[in-house]
Each structure stands twice: as C-alpha cells, then as structure tokens.
Amino acid sequence: MRVMETLAEQGVTVLFKADAERMRDGVRPWTFVANGVPFHEDLLVRTDAASVEACLQVCLPQLRARGLVIPE
After folding, report:
1. CA atoms within 13 A on the CB side of 46
2. For 5, 23, 27, 45, which has the most beta carbons within 10 A of its beta carbon?
3. Residue 14 CB: number of other CB atoms within 10 A?
4. H or E segment to which residue 23 belongs
5. Could you say which DSSP state residue 39 is in?
6. Which helix H or strand E contains 54, and what residues bound it?
7. At CB < 8 A and 24+ separation, what contacts does 21-25 make?
8. Which domain of life is it from (predicted)?
C-alpha cells in the first residue's frame, strides 16, 4: 500500500491489526497505530474501526495535520 510506504519513508512506524476475537464479536476489529520520528515520543495516532478504510479516514487527516505528506 503506497500510503504506508510514504509514511515509512518519513520515519513513521505503522501498524495495522485485525483482531479475530473482536471480528467475531462484531466490534471494530481493525486497529491502526502510527508513531515515530515526526512525533514527540509520547504522541501517537491510533484508532479502532470496522475496516481498514475507516481507520485511514480517521487517521490520515490527523497525520496530515501534523505535517506529513500523504498521497490522496
């Protein structure tokens, strides 16, 4: 996924997780976490959502607001 490569090139570590238990329970099984060099050590961007796309809709604007360049 080009977005993840672009973030990594800027020093951001990105984690996507699909939780099988939450998927079975129908409770926002996807987690997105981003942290790294562009952020202060104690700051990260994270969300839990129903899909990968929903995670990106929440987190990409936050990353852009912190000055990261992310393709549309």
Report:
1. 9
2. 45
3. 19
4. helix 20-25
5. S
6. helix 52-65
7. 22/48
8. Bacteria
Place of tokens 């607001």: 65
Give the start-end residues of each E strand in the chain: 12-18, 30-36, 45-49
Burial of 10 (C-beta count, 10 Å sphere; 0-12/13-18/19+): middle
* Prediction pTM value: 0.86
pLDDT in tens, 3-58: 999 999 998 999 999 999 999 999 999 999 999 877 766 678 999 999 999 999 99
What does DSSP assign to residue 45?
E
Task: Map tokens 């672009």 to a residue.
Answer: 6
